[in-house]
Amino acid sequence: MPSTEEPRARNTSDPSSPAASPSSPAPWPPERGTDVSMELRDGETSGFLELPASGHGPAGGITLALRGRVPEREGLEPALFVHGLGGSSRNWSAVMARLGGDIAPLAVDLPGHGASPPPADRDYSLYAHTRAVIRAVAAGGRGPVHLVGQSLGGAVATRVAALRPDLVRTLTLISPALPPWGYHPAGGWGRVPRTALPTALLAAPGVAHLLRRLARDLPPANRARDVLALTYGDPQRIAPEELAAAAAEFERRQALPYFWESLSRSARGLVNAYTLGGQQSLWKQAERVLAPTLLVYGSRDKLVSVRSARRAEQTFPDARLVVLPEAGHVAMMEFPDVVADVFRELLAETGTTDHEDGHH
User: Fold this and answer.
1) Which of 35, 106, 119, 203 could hold 12 in an S-S bridge, CB 3.0 to 4.6 Å?
2) SS3 category, 245
3) CA distance 313 to 45
């Protein structure tokens, strides 16, 4: 049943502005803002979605930062983009800029990521991130949306689509962080691939504290370059402006007292989700997804093995698979034109949106 909670929107062009009337749904996308904690590209908007405590179960109040673009025409269907571990809504800027004539795009910062403050209960489990996305879409009756997730955001999006099919029109997953090994009743746990080790290491107790100490001695540009080199298929494709923006964001976020906690606990929550069996398994939940699904993998991905692409294609009931031979973990940043094109093909194939006025 759709949520009846009432969101409050705050325009970041005036951080002191009062929230909108509780009966008013938050803008989709939010109104143009100038929030200093969010560096916006031309044509982008920003805002905060304040979701009060639901009164149902453990969900407390949360505030989510949003980044969007003004659609090129009225009536376009909404799309929500969910970033990966340690990322932010900025990771979707290039793709959203290319899709303004096809959808009404909006990207969310997960709790404790980007410009979103940490959750009061310090819960960074996969369930908590999933709940945050469900509440964001359900509040104000925005669904169903075209849901797009990458890495951790892909795992979150998979759960959202399985648990709340009424909120998801189509599902697009880019290098989704689905369990890299499978539990087989007859054979136990399979071998953990090398690509899963960075996430598992980050989730280990004490590692975040060690990384915090090591990071103090590295200039922000060096830290940003190391992370981008890990996520790009070819580090030579990292544009100077992307490196500069990533360095600025690293410097801002690592000064936050909760940065390393949000990163390590989110990694731990993802690894814990990998160990779940039965109907709570991410692969089992993938089997329940009803929405048409687009899977995008990179052959040069160092964090999610491309070997899992075929299993994903066979598991999601209505899936189509695209493997980009030169892409790494962030295909939407490396090849935004290609990702935008295959997303449009999904829309055209499923007949979920029109292309009037000769738009392609």
Assistant:
1) 35
2) helix
3) 35
